[in-house]
Amino acid sequence: LFAGDWQFFWAAPSIETLPAMAGIEVAFAGRSNVGKSSLINALTGRNALARTSHTPGRTQELIFFEGPENAGFRLVDMPGYGYAQAPKAKVASWTALIHQFLQGRSNLARVYVLIDARHGLKDVDLDVLNTLDKAAVSYQVVLTKADQVKASELDQTVAATAAALTKHPAAFPEILVTSSRTGAGMPQLRAAMVRLIGE
Ligand code: GTP
Ligand code: MG
Known about the structure:
By secondary structure, this protein is an alpha/beta fold. It has helices at 36-44, 88-103, 123-135, 151-165, 186-196; strands at 7-12, 24-30, 62-66, 73-77, 108-116, 139-144, 176-177. The chain has one domain: 3-Layer(aba) Sandwich (Rossmann fold), CATH 3.40.50.300.
């Protein structure tokens, strides 16, 4: 699945412009700048597949990427939430789009909720976890930018996050620790997705 070429497939600025459902979709959610687009690039081994930026608010649409040879598998990059500096109306419309997509897409097999390892779970993250719990969409928390924190701090964040997740029925108890910069956690994340499609 991750050996072949991944390609851009579709960009949806609104819930009305989504592509027809086909195959299995896996989406990446998280606060602005948490590293969603970078993670997709690291996973697929394509540096500039998803557009990244050091300024929050880079991804402004739901962006669909298609796996190699019609594997029937798509990755969905999403706008970030919780970005206070963007115009209020934009933040509100991105947030609504994210929540609508997450609860209304029946071929959405898994959501990876990305959390910055330096910051841990925030209230805006909990809103998304609650939406996923209500919709019974299975999700797993992925800590990003692990290269930026000390091992001891990382252990604490993992423990605190795991404790919080016990209250969330649709969450995987296991937390993945990743860095798009060093590639840490990528084999585990790829393996999890391969298991999803039963390859
Ligand atoms: P939005 O689309 O704006 O919501 O952001 P995003 O979540 O897609 O984040 P993006 O991938 O654009 O990355 C944001 C910034 O974080 C960029 O400057 C990346 O280079 C940086 N970044 C992403 N992943 C890592 C990582 O694992 N380690 C470090 N040190 N920096 C990272
Ligand atoms: Mg992005």
